[in-house]
Amino acid sequence: MKRTATAVWKGNLREGTGTLDTQSGALDAHPYSFKARFEDENGKSGTNPEELLGAAHAGCFTMQLSHLLAEAGHPAEQLKTIATVSVEPKDGGGFEITRSALSLEANVPGIEQDIFEAIAGKAKAGCPVSVALGGVEITLETRLDR
Fold it and tell me: Which of 6, 50, 52, 87 would be a feasible disulfide site paired with 21, CB 3.0-4.6 Å?
């Protein structure tokens, strides 16, 4: 299985602009820019790679957790994950992605906290996006509603 995404960029780094397209059409000439990536904290001027990485990580982890919970006999009623991806200046210039912090709200009837935590930890470690982010700190905070 392979998935594609296309980036087109015009101009220099600070004043240039780009568009992103995905195979599925979820992004279709979606704008991105230096401002959207490094200056616009409200996130309304376009997307950026870190936001997209966060969406991918949250989606992958949540699907993996759903599968593992059902496999263990504890299907979830609802799982909601927010992934906060941090990009920081690095020594010598430039930037690096340093962390993906997963924050999970889960409604899983009848499961014990320790069993839930163990399964969530397994999902965090095993989802393909977590594996791909091997050089980045990944944290998980959970809230279990039963």
Answer: 6
Please say whether the beta carbons of 62 and 83 come within 8 A. Answer: no
Task: Indicate the pairing of strand 78-89 with strand 95-107.
Answer: antiparallel
Nearest to 67 by CA among 107, 122, 24: 122
Q: Which residues contact 26 (CB under 8 A, 6 or more apart)?
A: none
Of 45, 35, 38, the closest CA to residue 15 belongs to 35
Average pLDDT over residues 5-32: 94
Give, to the nearest 10 degrees, the angle between helix 113-126 and helix 49-71.
130
By the 8 A CB rule, do 87 and 95 touch?
Answer: yes
Structure tokens at 55: 């969406």
* Structure-model confidence comparison of residues 46 and 67, the more confident one: 67
How big is the chain, counted in residues?
146
pTM over 0.85: yes
Token readout for 77 is 């009623």
